[in-house]
Amino acid sequence: MGNKYLDGTVLTIAIIGVINWGLVGLFRFNLVSFLFGDMSWLSRIVYVIVGICGLYLLTFYMRLSDSSKS
User: Fold this and answer.
1) Which of 13, 23, 48, 58 could make an S-S bridge to 53, C-beta 3.0–4.6 Å?
2) Cα gap 34→42, rounded to integer Å
3) Are 10 and 47 a contacting pair, CB within 8 Å?
């Protein structure tokens, strides 16, 4: 339970990434590129952070299987 705040932060960042992909798919509007420039160093950092958060969320599957065994 010590990771509660980290989990919440990571989940929030991943949801922001999902919303951005939804905007790209529905309206061809990339919010990250709009705010930070097309593949600028800042937008690349945002993409990397969202990607790392997505990888971290994979650990949720392991925690789900651990909690179902208890």
Assistant:
1) 13
2) 12
3) no
Structural domains in the chain (count): 1
70 secondary structure, DSSP code: -
Q: Print the domain residue range for 23.
A: 4-69
CA-to-CA separations, 27 to 17, 22, 24, 43, 70, in angstroms, rounded: 15, 8, 6, 19, 45
Render each residue's pLDDT in the chain as its tens digit; 70 residues.
558 899 999 999 999 999 999 999 999 999 999 999 999 999 999 999 999 999 999 988 888 777 777 6
